[in-house]
Amino acid sequence: MWNFSNEKPVYLQIMEELKMQIISGSYKPGERIPSVRDLAEEARVNPNTMQKALSEIEREGFLISLRTSGKYVTDDAEFIKNVREDRAGGIVKEFADNMGKLGISADEAVEMLKMYYCKKNNKG
Amino acid sequence: MWNFSNEKPVYLQIMEELKMQIISGSYKPGERIPSVRDLAEEARVNPNTMQKALSEIEREGFLISLRTSGKYVTDDAEFIKNVREDRAGGIVKEFADNMGKLGISADEAVEMLKMYYCKKNNKG
Amino acid sequence: MWNFSNEKPVYLQIMEELKMQIISGSYKPGERIPSVRDLAEEARVNPNTMQKALSEIEREGFLISLRTSGKYVTDDAEFIKNVREDRAGGIVKEFADNMGKLGISADEAVEMLKMYYCKKNNKG
Amino acid sequence: MWNFSNEKPVYLQIMEELKMQIISGSYKPGERIPSVRDLAEEARVNPNTMQKALSEIEREGFLISLRTSGKYVTDDAEFIKNVREDRAGGIVKEFADNMGKLGISADEAVEMLKMYYCKKNNKG
DNA sequence: GTGGTCTAGACCACA
DNA sequence: GTGGTCTAGACCACA
Questions:
Q1: For helices C77-101 and D106-123, what crossing angle results, to 10°?
Q2: Chains C vs A: touching, with 3+ CB pairs under 8 Å?
Q3: How far is D25 from chain C (nearest CA, A)?
Q4: What does pTM read for this prediction?
């Protein structure tokens, strides 16, 4: 959570990272996340920057804050699932489009993907 | 071959487009491509810009130019095949990485891809 | 840097000239060269033509360009040295070949060369 | 005497070749050269082309023709010697100029030339 | 100010 | 008609 590029504003990169952790399940629904201060320290970032990132993804519905006790991942598992599926759908579509541009058929594409996972599995 | 974004230089986008046409087989190995002027007109671009794009992909090995007769796709089918496979490999890797970040397993990813192709097929 | 023949494209002649200046040490390794505009003005040539020449010799490894600060001679002195030696070797070979065609022996050729340098020296 | 480039008229190349043979001493002063017909056949060239070449170098003073008995190399050894020296001088000057442009000193140039001949000698 | 891109349009050799 | 070169001049991001 500390590798930032110079291309985009840092708070946007933090937002992306945190949303990813929620979507992927690293942070579970309803789970309490670390304090702004701790997160800022972990990311080597100004607390204000971290605060801005957290506020934004709270506004987007990923977090809720309880005034006195901290911030929690939304317990709306359906919401998280939907975001996850939207993203996954986008990735799948992009993949199919790219392969299509290369003139690679559906069957070939699926086969190549299986092959990739297979090799990767054997290595790991 | 006429929709350009403002993010990257036009000549780079043209290079990408033309290489894609060669890699995907729209232009066959050894086939003559349209003249610089014609391509420029088709792309609504200055002939110099098209010339620059063509010179670059010629330098990369996709084209050869015969002085007074025009430019031809390389007849080195092996070269084209290698580029195609490199690109496909990159796309597959990127896909797997992105799905992995979402916490989606290999089996799920393959399943989603099949599903996507299936739906698309039924629509078309 | 301003006398161009009609036999070869101007940008090729500029390339030759600039590479010569680098090889001969007029421009030192790591040294900043004048801006594209200044060089173009000095050579009485369109900036685009100068830009093309510079891009080419940059691609060949003689220059590196830092976006907003200018272009610099490569600091790879080894590279420059190698190019210099290759060229010198070619010149020596051509000389020996030409003298050989005239039926002039190695000893004679060396003698004539010494004589030439000697006379030239006394003049200067 | 039969390898011609497409860049220059053939008769000019023949002239060059024949003058070279005279200058280098392959054809001696006063020696009779083969007939136009034989030379043309040897060079795989139309007799008219050979005739033109021979007339030109005769005009330049390398040959004299005796109406009934053929063409002879001039017996003016002084003339031949002068041409030879002029050419050699030009080659030497060009060599020194080229080396000078590379920033190579007289001593270095002489040394490199000796080295070249030495290596060549050991190989042959 | 720096490198770099792009357009509009002229001109060239080659066949 | 073909690729290729060149000019004149505008415009851009970057720092």
A1: 70
A2: no
A3: 7
A4: 0.81
